[in-house]
Every structure is written in C-alpha cells, then in structure tokens.
Amino acid sequence: MVLSPEVLFYLRVADSATLLILLLTSLLLKRPTEQTPTSDQHSEITSVVQAVHVPRKQLIVLLLSLLALTAFLEGSVTVASAVFKNVFEPTLPGWKGNALYSIALLVAFAGLAILGLVKEARGVPIWQSKLLKLFIFVALVFDALLAVLIPLVPIWKRPRVPENPDSVPPVGIAPAVHFGLTVFRVLVLLILFPALFFPRTVYKPIDRNESAPQTEESSLLIPAAVAATAPTASKTKYGTFDGASTPLPSSTPIPTPAAGGSSTPAINLPVRTAPTWYENGVRLMRLVPYLWPYQSFGLQLLALVCLLILAVGRVVNAAIPFQLSAVLDALAREGASRTVLPPLMWYIGLRFFGAPGGLDAIRGLLWAPVIQFSNRSLSQLAFDHLLSLSLAWHTRRKTGEILSILDRGAAIKRIFELLIFNLVPTVADTVVAVWIFFWYFGPTLSVFITVTMVMYVSLSAMLTAQMTKLSRGMVGVDVATRGIHTDSLLNYETVKYFNGEAHEGARYREALGRYQESEIRVMASLNIMSLSQNLLLSVGLLVGSLLVVFDAAHQDEIMKRYVVFITYLAQLYGPLNTLAFLYSSINQSLIDTERLLDLLDEPSEVQDKPDAKELVVTDGIIEFDNVTFSYDGRSTALKGVSFTVPKGGSLALVGESGSGKSTILKLLYRFYDLAPSDGAIRIDGQDIRDVTQTSLRRAIGIVPQDCVLFNNTIGYNIGYGKFGSSTEEIENAARAAQIHERILSFPDGYETAVGERGVRLSGGEKQRVAIARTILKAPAIILLDEATSALDTSTERDIQKAVQNLTEGRSSVSIAHRLSTISKSDLILVFYQGEIVESGTQRELIERGGRFATMWADQMSSMGESRATPEPASQDDSVASGSSL
C-alpha cells in the first residue's frame, strides 16, 4: 500500500498547528479561582495527616526535553542532507512538511517545558492543568499515526526523470532516522501521559493552626479568608534598608528547642529585604577607590593595557569566521595545496590569539597585580572597619557569622571583574555578530536571531530572579550554620563541661541539613535554567539552519555559507551563554556581598568629633557629673551618678552583680558615649566626648576580670601594653606582676605560646600577664575590674603590693567583690540598681551598719573569720563624693 506524500504533509501541518495553538492557549493559564474549603461539621474524626498530590515535575520536564531533542535531531538530519549531500527539494510536500514539522515540534515541546517552569515560578500550577494533558494526548495521537504512515509514503526520493532513471539516488539513511525518532517520540509520550495523570501522593501532617498543609497543589486553593487567619511569619529580619545605610544585625535569632523537648533545635531563619540593582550600584560605587589603583601609575598603566588587549580580542573574534571562509575558498580552487597555506596560517594565528590561552592569558597575567591591590584594599578596609566599631556592636555579633560574611564578601572584586572583562566584551561581541548577520545573510535571518536573543535574555532574567530568591535564602542559612559551627568551637570547654557534644552535633546537623536543602533548590533552579536556555538556543539553531538552507539550496556556495553561519552563530551563542552566566553570577555575587556592604554601612556608635583634641592628663582627676545611662533605651543602668576621684586618689566600687559597677569603667573607657542630656564625664576638666579616643585610651590602663590573651607568646602579650618595648622592660613588668619566675620555669620561657584566648595558662597566670601588660603601659589612670579575683591567697598578698606600686601616685578606680582587697581605698561607693546608696571609707561603711556592712559580715562569715572591725585605712580628706549621701 502506497500513500500520497500530501497525506503526511497535511497530517504534520495539522499536528504542528494543533500543538502550537494549545501552547499559545497555555500562556493564558492563570492561578485557579480560590474556593472555600468545606468541612463535615458532624464528623467526630480529626485527621492528623492529609494526602497531597504532588506533580512529577522533574520527570515531566525531562521527558519534554527529550521530545524537544527528537524534533531537533529530525531537523538536523534535514539540514545535514541538504548541506553535505546536496539533497533538498523544498518544493516537494514531503520535504516542506518535514522541515516545518521539525521547527513547530521543537517550538511546541521546548516552549511547553520553558513555559511550565516560568508559570511554576509565578505560582501557576500548569503541571496539573487539563490543557497540558490534552496537549500530550494530541501529540501522542498524531505521532502514533505518523509512525504507522511514514513507511507507506515514498517521500525520500526525488521524482526520477524518465530519460535518465538513475539520475537521482535515494537520500540514504535519513528515512530510517526520521522513522526511528518518531517511534522513540511515541514511546516517550507513552511514559509522559501516565506521569501527568498519576502524580505522587505524599502524606503530610496537618498544621492545627491552618486549615490545610501548604503544599504545591493545595496552597493555590486556600481562600483569602482562611489565609488571613493563619499565623503570619515572623517579621524579624536579618537587616532592612533604611536610607543610605543599613544596620547589620548582631546575630541571627537564637535557635529554639524543638517541640517535645527534642535535642535538635528549630532554626529561626532570618528574612531579608532584597535591595534593588540601583541601591546595590550606589553602594558599590563607594568601593571604587579601593578597587581602582588611584595612587599607583604603574598599576593604572597595566589596567589600561588590559583594556586594550580586550579591544583587540573583540576584533580577533570577529575576523575568525571570515578567515575560515577564506580557507574554504582556497580549498575549493584548483591548486589548493599552493594557495591554502597563507589563509590557513592566518586562521591558525587568529584561533591562537582568540583562544582562552591566547590574549586572555596575557591579560590575566597583567591583571594579577591590579586584582591583588583590590584584594588587599578591601580586606584592609573590612578589617579596619570591624576594629573601629564600638563595643556595643561587638557584644551583639557572632564571630562565626562575621567570618562567613567576610569570606563571602570577597565576591565584591569579582563583580567589577565580571563587569569589565566579561559584560563589556560580551555585549560588544553580540552587537558585532548581529551586524555581520545582517550584512552577510540578510534581514530575515538577522531579525530571527535578534528575536531569539531577546527571548533568551528575557527568559534568563526571569528564571534568575527566581533563583536569586533561593540563593539569598541559602546564604542566610549558610551564615547561621557557620555561626553555630564557630560558636561551638569557641565554647569547647563549656561543651565538655556539660556533655554537650550530642546537643551541639544535633544543632549543627540540623543547620547543615537546612543548608543542603537550600543548596539543592538553588542547584536544581540553576540546572533547570540551563536546560531552558539550551532548549531555546536549539530552536534558534534549527530554524536558522533551515533558513540558510532554504536561501542557498540551489547555490554552489551552500557549504561555505553554512559554515560561516554555524561559526558566527557559535560566536553569538557564546556571548549569549556568557550573558546568562554573567547575570546569574553578578546576582550571586551581589547576594554574597550584600551583608559585607551592610557591615561596611554599619556606623560606629562612638566617633570622634571633627574638632576633637588630644587628651592632656596632668593630675588625673576623674569626675562623673550626674551621669545617667541605658544600654537599650528601656532599662537604666546608671541613675544620676556623681563622684570625683582627685589626683592620685583610689576609688572602689562595690555592689551586687548588675548594679552598674562595670558600666562605670566602660563609660570611662568610652566604649559607649553619653547623650548630651545624660551628664558628663571629665578628666582634668576635659569632657571625654570632646577628645580623641586614641589619646583617652592611651592615658588609661585596665586589668579586666576576664583576661583574654592573643594566641601568641607570653612575651608578645606582655609587650602589647607598649609596642616596641625591649626585653628588659617586659621582664621588669613581669617581675612587678609577680610572674617572672613562673615564666622562666616554662621550657620556652617568654616564648611560650599561650594558646587560643590564653587557654594554656591558668586563671591566675593569665591575670598576672594582664597586670604586667598594664604595668608596662604605665598609664596615668588605672582601672581594675576584679584584678585579683583569680589569685590564691598567697599570691594575692604579693600581687596586692604590685598593684599598690602600680597605682602609687595615679588615680585608680577598682571593682571588687572580695571586700578585703579594697581595705586601703580612699573612697568606696556602694551601688544598688544603678544608684550610689552609700559612700565612705571601709571603716565608716562598716560602722554605719548599712548595705556594705551586711556584705562585709556575709563574706567574713563565709570565710570562717571573725567579724572584727578592720584596721583603720588611710584616708585622703581631699576625696570628695558628689553623691547625695
């Protein structure tokens, strides 16, 4: 049985037209109308889980891509037959139908896959639509008919000429390939059809706070009234943009324990407000001075040479296809062995310089010093800014999160490199390629290629926007995960003390699982975007090839024109792929750098005034004048505190924990600034808000209660009190702090490493190193915060003498919980809830029988000592208290 070729032609036209109409109809598919769920009010059974039908998205997209691939291969066979065997008759129905059918089928299946991904990103459930099922059913019916009819229609031979019956040979294996691809397409459709009708069934627990679980299918059907009553998400954000600067939050929310007392805590993920491209651009422009070597003429010259090489590379890329055409012309002429060598050598030379190892390698070598300058400048900028931030900020931040932000923030330099060396040349290559298409192939092909480019860029931008949201969430989870990791390592001893290994492992495992879930979504989104882009480019390649073949089917130069077309199309698709990659990469780099920009925008709460002067200390008189202070603006840490420490006077602060004692030292050291209406702190009559922080802290030495040492040698930590100090000065300070002999007992002496935060030393040894550091500094004012709290009784007696020698002739303020250590203080202030409630010498306060006397009696009783009145302490009548007592 033999059928007319027109049968196949009209069947394919009908198939193509029907599929394209259904595809265009799918563009109008919107979100389903919301319906109010009904419930059986008489039912006494409460469901704990609900069956949810989830479409097999990955399988559907994969099968649609295979179908599009079969159409592309069919069209490629047609093009190959025309180009390499010169067999093409567009006037015959069989050829024409096959060419148009391949294009339409590729557009239909590729377009459906891309449309489905775009619609899904916008919340439209296209995979569940009846229209999609009808589309696949129609495709299955038509392809099944074609598979049956193709062997019966003799379309693969030109009509034989009666005078010369052997003039036209058969095409070869092309009919078998077309038939095989049709059968394969039928098999794929047979798999795809049930995949649409039988989605996966997932059982999910019902949230008691919601009417139904928020799934891919049911979330689109929840009515607005029900959604309005559902619990809203937390409004807590990692950071929001307000004006020109955006404060960086100190840390992510503290994980809360999971329900049921599980050791695995639930992680509260921060929600970010995405900045616009313009906002990011404005913020990035402030970093240009740190990226461009303004002060180095040599580096600027190197950068200009790199830009020149970039321009030369664009010319080389444009010349390669034409030089290849010249090689083909030389090969087609007689005596090709003599004429082909010059154009061939030119072609090889252009290929060498146009390859990644050519001009790009030379440019990369010259650009390396410039990139090093950028790395150095940005790293130093971030480091200096971190150190300039106030103590208030540092007490709120998490070390692990900051390290993660700095690590990811290194992508800033990559943004500028992408813009200069990738985006600009890519746009230039694209413009040149389109112009050459217009000049060499005419307006029809140029318009089609331009439309394909616009569709490609639009699709990439649309899918990248969706991927950017996922990437921003992934970065937030990554920062939180690293914070948990670092926090556990910094608190290693506490973990051991409380057998917290399993708990910390669970915390990290939970956070790591969340991160990997986010990472998988980002990777899937990236691969789906690549698949969609490839489908669209395949459509452009097939249609463009057929247009070239139609235009040159009867010309002797069809091979030459097609080779030039393929070469230039490859050079055009290269920039297109680069544009999509650049858009994605720049978006990802912006996401990575957002938090570093937030960090750099974080203002220091304590700043020197423009006209700040150096502090001049003559007598060291300290004065607090009606000081009121609050850390958070809600609870008050100090209330109207006033006192004066005269020249060489010693002041002791006592009271319960949280009564405001440490706040006095922090304010004096200017870790926080007072508001103008909250009183004043003066040293020798100079308001410390009017002097530079450097000069203020140069005049004050402090021995903190928690002595933190650098992970370096003992000698380095003592010498930190006076940079550039000699070995003799360091040893003298150690002797005064009663630790010199102990240091010499170590095998490495002063070169002994103290470990992270000084963990290799005992508490008393760390405190004596801190005292030696302050002795070496020799400041005018001394602050002691429980300076002897970690010392044994024997060492305390020795160190008390060292402290007395240190404070001799210097004004000093000390905090003590062991009241026996302040017996010789000139004045003692007793704090309670941020106020001075008692003041006087030790004897006066004990005799008064107030709060201090009670504290003294409790300590003496706990120590098993008598409550005898201590020996009279030396007093200085010049010590005056401005308190109301």
Q: Which key features would you list for this structure?
A:
alpha/beta, Rossmann fold, 885 residues, elongated
Protein architecture, described:
There is one protein chain. By secondary structure, this protein is α/β, with parallel strands linked by helices. Among the domains are: about 5-30 and about 50-160 and about 170-205, no CATH class; about 295-380; about 620-705 and about 780-860, P-loop containing nucleotide triphosphate hydrolases (Rossmann fold, 3-Layer(aba) Sandwich). Helix content is about 55%, strand content about 10%. The strands form 5 sheets. The chain has a 6-stranded mixed beta sheet with strand order 12-13-14-9-15-16, sandwiched between helices. Helix 26 (about 795-805) links the parallel strand 13 and strand 14. The radius of gyration is 40 Å and the shape is elongated. The model is unreliable at about 30-45, about 90-95, about 155-170, about 210-270 and about 865-885 (pLDDT under 50). Belongs to the ABC transporter superfamily. ABCB family. Heavy Metal importer (TC 3.A.1.210) subfamily. It is found in: Membrane.
